[in-house]
Amino acid sequence: MKILKEFISKKNNVFLIVDEDDKKCIYKKFSSKDKCHSEILCLENLNIAQVNVPRIIKKADNALFLEYIEGCNLCDFIDNMFCYDSSQICNIADILSSHLIKLYSTNYFQKNNYILNDVNLRNFIFYKDKIYSIDFEDIRKGDLEEDIAGIVFYILTNNPPFTEWRIKLAKCFYNKINSCINLNKNKSIKYVNNWIKKIEKRRKCKFTEIQVSQINDIIFL
Hints:
With 221 residues, this protein is α+β, with helices and mostly antiparallel strands. The protein has two domains: 66 residues, Phosphorylase Kinase, domain 1 (2-Layer Sandwich), CATH 3.30.200.20; 149 residues, Transferase(Phosphotransferase), domain 1, CATH 1.10.510. The protein contains eight helices and ten strands. The strands form three sheets. A five-stranded antiparallel beta sheet has the order 1-2-3-5-4, with helices on one face. A three-stranded antiparallel beta sheet has the order 6-8-9. Helix 5 runs antiparallel to helix 6, helix 5 crosses helix 7 and helix 7 runs antiparallel to helix 8. The radius of gyration is 18 Å and the shape is globular. It starts with a strand and ends with a helix.
């Protein structure tokens, strides 16, 4: 096993490697057996449902060898969307929302009331006009409104925050997914407020009244 790159991860050890068959893949060593088991169950079910996620190549002791999805993580991809026109931005929003609608509509997520929970945009890969989800160890029961509010917040507040293209992308994404899932307004209000507090605490910052207004405009207009 030859290590090509180590990925930043606060919870696990994640590497891009070349395996014994001389093929690139991801080696992910988990912090606990429960986390590893959770990811295996989720990936197996989502692959059966033909959702865009990595295939499991091999299972090891508290670790997985996973298909390597080329492309760019969504966080970095969005950072470079300043040159995109309105139709291109809305197209990316459609691709992301369609991917999530398919994921949330699977029997595995529906019957367990699951949400992704960790919706950091680095957990999504954009490759050949498709979005792939790549991290499932933190899934849990919850309200979809929590995940969607989180994605909107990451889109808006990653650097550089609240740019014109970020606001456009967040609006297009929220409107598209809300038209298909019909998100609960009261729950959305609750989770928007939770995310404001969470991001302010994590980044040691304070949103301005204008920024809070922009967030509310996306969710409630």
